[in-house]
Structures are given as structure tokens and as C-alpha cells.
Amino acid sequence: MGHISTADIERISRRPGEKRYNYFLKTVVDTEEVYGLCDADGWALLSDDSIGDVIPLFPDPVFAERFRVAAGWEKEYNTEALDLNELMLWLDDMQHDGLLVAVFPNESFESVVLEPVRLKTELLSIFEQEAE
Question: Is residue 110 domain-resident?
Fold first, then answer.
């Protein structure tokens, strides 16, 4: 992407979770790509004792990289792009597997956590609005 300035990255990262969530939705619909952290075995999961496994997703590789460093995952994981159409299919599988999505976590691991089906519904509704 490369068009986000360092100042913008800092500003966006400091936004509250709900604002980062809205930024994620808008950006992902515009670029039709989403980013996660991946190793040879698959996608990085955050485990939460109260809610189970959560997959962190990011709107831009810059933010995924920052999170990767903050999590101390530089050696284990790489930032990977995922086409939005693939994500839509994958969200169904995540829902079926009982996983949750952490949308755009910041370096403090704060994010909006929701069911994959809800994220899919929100993305589809934005697509429909833009298509009108």
C-alpha cells in the first residue's frame, strides 16, 4: 500500500477500537484485501481463556507488521495478504469452527472481537451501499 504516512499510522493506531473497526471495514472494501499473520501451519491465533481462539485481521500490512513486532512474533509469523473474496468464504469456515475475529488489534492487543458471520454481514452491507 505504501501510501500511509508514519504520522497517519500513529494516529490510526491510537484510535479507539470502534473507530479502527470502521477504518478496517472501509479500507478492506476499497482495497479488496485483508492481512493476517501466518506461519507454515496456518494463521496466527490469539487465545483467550474466556472466549477461545481469535484470529487477528488487519486493513494494511503496515499495521499487521506493527502488531507482529509488538506480539514478539517476528521469527514465527509473516504478514500475508488475503483476497476479500477468499476472506468471505473463510469467514463461514471460521464461524463453523467456533473461531472469533479480532478486527485490527493495536499494539496493546485491543480490538473489536466479533463473530465471523457479523463481520461478513457488515462487509456485505458496505458493498451493497457502494454498489447503489
Answer: yes
For position 59, which CATH number holds?
A: 3.40.1350.90
Tell me whether residue 1 is in a domain.
Answer: no
Residue with cell 456485505: 124
- Between CA 89 and CA 132 the distance in angstroms is 23
Q: What is the pTM of this model?
A: 0.92
How far is Cα 95 from Cα 69, in angstroms, rounded to an integer?
Answer: 28
Domain count, the chain: 1
pLDDT digits (tens, 9 = 90+) for 57-109: 999 999 999 999 999 998 999 999 999 999 999 999 999 999 999 999 999 99
| pLDDT for the residue 51 | 85
In a domain, 25, yes or no: yes
Q: Which phi and psi angles does 50 have, rounded to 5°?
A: -85, -25
Measure the CA–CA gap between 67 and 115, rounded to whole angstroms. Answer: 21
Range of the domain at 91: 6-131
pLDDT tens-digit series, residues 41-56? 999 999 888 888 999 9
What is the chain's Cα-based Rg? Answer: 14
